[in-house]
User: Fold DUF2214 domain-containing protein from Gloeobacter morelensis MG652769.
Amino acid sequence: MPPETWLRQLEQTAPAVALRQGVWLYPAVEIVHIAAFVLAVGAVALFDLRLVGLARALPVAPLARFLLPVVHRSFVAAVLSGLMLFVTDATTLAANPAFRVKLALIALAGANAALLHAGPLRTVEQWTKVPSAARSMAVLSLLLWGAVLVCGRLIAYL
Assistant:
């Protein structure tokens, strides 16, 4: 089945039709998506900024224990609300270059985070200073998430 066919079928599902036809439903889901995304990226940015050297008085391990659950929960909310928004115009969004780049950048940011967790962050309790690998990954994370935000805004204009 060609992608255009199943994308059109996706657009005809009951949730997609309800979102398109409801006066308040689409804006409500969009608000949830933006709020969840801001919370997720904001928490990631605060942690990354600590890793690159800001607010050195804050210990990294407790900050991670506080912020990471916030990131995980808000990211799940952003993905679920994003999927709901996607089904309303799946054919157009799937062809949008900014949307495609945004998804690729999110995957790269996720891979970077996975490497941080599998590598330097595993020994965070023993750190006397932030390892250079963790600082580099934090800088990359800030750049990737910034680019995701830019692509998210460009979707409407491309």
